[in-house]
Amino acid sequence: KNFTTSDILVRRRKHNRAKFERGTEKIVAIDEIIVHPKYNWRENTEPGTESLCCT
User: What is the DSSP string of 7-52?
Assistant: First the structure.
């Protein structure tokens, strides 16, 4: 399937680098998503999260 902008859900992950950082998530607007031409989403999807990436 060729995905469009309406098919993709993006979750940006953040590593806690210091114990004083909060564990909350921020919601921000994204103007553009550029996917590398050689990126293979089938190989790079975490097990159990396939339903999150595709609608």
Answer: T----------STTS---------S-----TT--HHHHSPTT-HHH
